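Homework help board

Subject: predicted structure for assignment chain

Our instructor gave us this sequence and asked us to write out the predicted structure in token form, then describe one feature. I got the tokens but I'm not sure how to describe them. Can anyone check?
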Amino acid sequence: MTVHDFTVEAADGSDRSLGDYAGQTLLIVNVASKCGLTPQYEGLEALYQELHGRGLEILGFPCNQFGGQEPGTNEEIQSFCSTNYNVTFPVLNKVEVNGSGAAPLYQYLRSEAPGDFGPDAGFLYEHIQKSRPEAIGTDEVKWNFTKFLVDGAGNVVRRYEPTVTPEEIRKDLDAALA
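My token output:
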């Protein structure tokens, strides 16, 4: 099984096969519009503009599981992304990334790349220790803007925790696209 075996829902309700992205490097990110990390949209869009022509596709999945920071409808989310950050990469249907209602894609991503969330995540680690201590040491997505790097064959290469900025993963993206 690979990421290419999954079908997800676009913001307009249509199905999108991730198999359509075979041969492309994917960066899959759970996003939110009312989060302290929301400015990462700017860095993600910059990466998309620079690297899309080389085979990078970024897929944003809005998620409201962390502090209710993505309360909008799909239409409101699309408008926010376009108006505030000029986002041109696909922002798909809102999903759950943890728990019994987690999207199958996210169940798979988490199992393939459980993460290395720890004290080096700084303020976010402290926040999770206080607000969701049961998540520490699990494969759960800890917060908005967790990123999964997927190679052209659909294999999950790496997980980046929320505090890792888009700019910090540029070197890994360049290597994946080489």
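Reply (TA_rk): Your tokens look well-formed. For the description, you could write something like this. The beta strands are 7-9, 15-17, 25-31, 56-62, 147-150, 156-160. That's the kind of observation they're looking for.
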